[in-house]
Amino acid sequence: MVSMLAFAASVIAAEPLPRRVFIAGDSTASAYGPERAPRQGWGQQLQGFLDPAAWQVRNHAQAGRSARSFIEQGWLDGIDKDLRRGDVLLIQFGHNDAKVEDPSRYNEPRDAFPTWLMRYVSLARERGAMPLLITPVARRKFDRGQLLDTHGQYAQAVRDLAARETLGLIDLNASSSDWLRALGDEPSKLFFMHVPEAHTPDQAQTDDTHFQERGAVAVACLVVDAWKRLDPALSEHVIRDTDCGARPSALADRAAQPHPSSVIHSADLARMQPGPHGGAGATTAYPMFADAPDMPFQFRKRALHKGAGIGLHQHDHDEIYYVLSGSGHYILDGVVHDVTAGDAMLTRTGSTHSIQQTGDEDLVLLIAYLKR
Questions:
Q1: Quick one: pLDDT at residue 6?
Q2: At 234, phi and psi to the nearest 5?
Q3: Domains, the chain, with CATH or none
Q4: pLDDT digits (tens, 9 = 90+) for 44-89
Q5: Pairwise CA distance, residues 36 & 298, whole Å
Q6: pTM summary value
Q7: 102-150, pLDDT tens digit by residue?
Q8: At what angle do helices 152-165 and 112-127 cross, to 10 degrees?
Q9: Among 104, 147, 185, 310, which is 20 to 30 Å from 112 by CA?
Q10: Going along 148-250, which residue ranges are E strands?
Q11: How far apart are CA 191 and CA 189, in angstroms?
Q12: CB-based contact 154:100 (threshold 8 Å)
């Protein structure tokens, strides 16, 4: 399969830019207007990952459709009339194909579902486009902390069809399941349509299938990351990072950590100290993670109160200051620099520096350096 995909990619790569990617899918991928806010589909966020000068997204996904009803209701016709050589067709169904109570949408997974999917594949092949199959994105369904698989036979049918027809496969069911497990039951609600009444014009929503914006972006990221693996040439046209999701081993990796990750609150760490290195006035030091084992660097916050400073001293290590708030005079190697919120200062080994607070507001610094 890899060699045939590489061949197809090389042929398509010769097509002029911009190229187009079409989406055929259901409500998890479709676009929604502001009247449905904050609900969004992942297809709605796909363009945000792609350089519009190189790729244009044509999102034809429709809510409530199965692989069958999308065709029978004429939604594939809009793709049919525009699809051309060099395009990519992303195909994601399965959520509604399992609705056995609705004969207009239901497809049994072994034969009917892949048969309908082949209609999309055949269309793409006829037009010289590249079809990519996508397994259905996972639902947020936990039972006693364990994520349940609600798409088992349908996701497997897509995998089997991709293998049988030598097609590119984006296993979104697997990657989104890993993402959900790593998030956990309660935190994952932030990405789905768990919306209190105060945030919607009609009523509160509890929906474990559809996404808020942050969920749509996260799933679009999973799609693009997998697409890049199928076609590495895509990477040069991806305009934001796709280091997203989690490995299948994420929970085991977490449990095996010798020194667990943690969160601290700076208010619990406050230490009143005079100005360091012979500096004037009073400061408050916040020794962030000072006792954390195996940390290769030091990370500190320090507030210089009115009139306070850090005295001149020569460095035997590299150090970075970042100004969170306030203003000051930063004396670096005999030169005074006026600094304020957002400024960063790098002092290299051998240099001298000092900093003095100015104005009425505390000068608050973040400080980082390698442990000696």
A1: 54
A2: -65, -30
A3: 2-255 (3.40.50.1110), 266-370 (2.60.120.10)
A4: 999 999 999 999 999 999 999 999 999 999 999 999 999 999 999 9
A5: 46
A6: 0.90
A7: 999 999 999 999 999 999 999 999 999 999 999 999 999 999 999 999 9
A8: 40
A9: 147
A10: 168-170, 192-195, 205-211
A11: 5
A12: no
